[in-house]
Amino acid sequence: MSDNPHDVDAARARIEAARARLFGTLGQVQERLSPSNLAQDAVETAAHGVATVARKGAEAVRSRPLAAAGIAATVGLVMARGWIGDILGKRHETRDPATGLKRKGKKGSS
């Protein structure tokens, strides 16, 4: 290239170099924005977030094990309340000997 700003060949060379850089950049942008890369980035970000939450949860359990056990027991009881209710409700049910069907009755009555 020459230092003369009016040199047509030098201007064309600069244009071609700029065009090559532009197309290279466009190729990189297209690659980054491809659906597979976007999905992979989303999965990696989610995995990193889950790992962070798990690590913080483990730290919280280590620092307060009794509180964590109490919370876990409460959640377990809430989730099993229907099952527990069914078990406790069966104590008051009796079967009608004639039909074999269950009927609810007071404790101690037949």
From TrEMBL:
Which ranges are annotated Basic residues under compositional bias? 101-110
Could you tell me which InterPro entries the record lists for this protein? Answer: DUF3618
What highest taxon heads this organism's lineage? Bacteria
Q: Where is this region: Disordered?
A: 91-110
Q: What is this protein called?
A: ElaB/YqjD/DUF883 family membrane-anchored ribosome-binding protein
